[in-house]
Amino acid sequence: MKQWYMLTLVGEDRAGIVAAVTRELFNCGSNLGEAAMVRLGGNFSVMLMVEYGGDPELLQQALSGVIERFSLNLHLMQISGELHHHLEPNLQLTVYGADRTGIVAEVTAALAENGFHILDMRTDVAGSSSEPIYVMQIEGFCSLGVAELLPRLKAAAAQQVEIALREIDLMIG
Amino acid sequence: MAVLEILRYPDARLKREAVAVEHFDSALQAFIADLEETMRAGPGGIGIAAPQVDCLQRIVLIDLRGLRKPVPNHGRVVLINPEITTWEGMAVGREGCMSVPDYTGNVIRAERITLTACDAEGVTQQYDFSGYEARAVQHELDHLDGLLFLDRLVSRHRDLFRRKVYQEPPPAK
Ligand SMILES: [Zn+2]
């Protein structure tokens, strides 16, 4: 019986990793679901939903060559895969400011307290090494509107950060 | 009147170019009534184009009056053989499509457009659309040329802070 797995690969970023991994996955008869690759601090990382009918040991073995070649760290876990049920975000949040510890914890705690379900998050450290800036982009769903939620987020982030909260007005045509 | 079947991608019929309407007869009026009923039964309910119901004619219908969050609009508008004459401004917005279930993405559209089109009786009219209504009109007009919002997707993440690339990106994967 086919089973979904979450395959996570992390390593030094080099050209050709995605192509090599997906080729091996295709060759061993597995099927790809949703996936996200991101480069974090120069590191390659990818999470792939993989559907496979055989022994997961065989799946790992199939990838062993490419894992070794690119010195990747692999994690494979069985998941209950669910496709065709995307949740739609209704709010988009941008937070930026001088890089300091605690920004993410403060803002996300306030989001959680207000029932904000984070569906997508990217954070980056930009600027220069002497003056880093922190940039966070979040999308999610919350039953509160901008007028209610924004003041609460601003109150939660005690120090100087810029917070913008916008509605995502989805248009289905 | 009848609710027509909405074609869903990957149905190749959605990728064809529609032809101009020549006869403003009772058959056209009947089709417009069906198109309207189909639009109102759909998940978006604010716009539809004839090719979405396998009619290869340059006919678009929009009506934003039913939106949960009201926006300025022209009410129910039938646009036949429409031609955009002026474009102004650009904005990123989130779109979905009745012909592409379970997916939404960011698309850049003009913020204001001027357009000429025939009405249901064949009389040429001129319209100024802006904001949400302009987005809806542009989305529907794309269907007349066999284009989906998938053909115009832009990044979900890199639209705010990374518009300029200062550094060579790493080689493609
Ligand atoms: Zn559409």
Number of domains of chain B: 1
Share of residues in helices of chain B:
10-25%
| Topology-level CATH name of the largest domain in chain A | Alpha-Beta Plaits
Largest sheet of chain B: 6 strands, antiparallel
CATH level-3 fold name of chain B: Peptide Deformylase
Q: How do the strands line up in the largest sheet of chain A?
A: 2-3-1-4
Query: What is the SS-derived class of chain B?
Result: alpha+beta
- As an assembly, this protein is heterodimer
CATH hierarchy, class of chain B? Alpha Beta
CATH class of the largest domain in chain A: Alpha Beta
Query: Which stretches of chain A of 5+ consecutive residues score pLDDT under 50?
Result: none
Largest beta sheet of chain A, briefly? 4 strands, antiparallel
Distance between the termini of chain A: 38 Å
Distance between the termini of chain B: 52 Å
Descriptive labels:
heterodimer; A: 173 residues; Alpha-Beta Plaits; 2 domains; 4-stranded antiparallel beta sheet; 43% strand; globular; B: 6 strands; 17% helix; binds zinc ion
Describe the structure.
The complex is a heterodimer of chains A (173) and B (173). Chain A is α+β, with helices and mostly antiparallel strands and 173 residues long. Chain A has helices spanning 17-27, 56-69, 103-113, 146-156, and strands spanning 3-12, 31-40, 43-52, 73-79, 91-98, 117-127, 132-141, 162-167, 171-172. In chain A, the strands form two sheets. A four-stranded antiparallel beta sheet of chain A has the order 2-3-1-4, with helices on one face. The two termini of chain A are 38 Å apart. In chain A, 19% of the residues are buried. Chain B has a single domain (12-162), classed as Peptide deformylase (Peptide Deformylase), CATH 3.90.45. Chain B has helices spanning 26-41, 131-144; strands at 47-49, 59-62, 77-97, 100-118, 124-130, 153-154. In chain B, strands 1, 2, 3, 4, 5 and 6 form a six-stranded antiparallel beta sheet that branches. In chain B, strand 4 and strand 5 form a beta hairpin. Classes of the chains: A alpha+beta (173), B alpha+beta (173). The A-B interface holds A 13, 15-19, 37, 39, 84-86, 88, 94, 96, 120, 122, 124, 126, 135, 137, 139, 167-173 and B 42-49, 69, 93-98, 101-104, 132, 135-136, 139-140, 149, 156-157, 160-161, 170-173. Strand 9 (171-172) of chain A pairs parallel with strand 3 of chain B. The complex binds zinc ion. Residues 97-99, 139, 143 of chain B line the site of zinc ion.
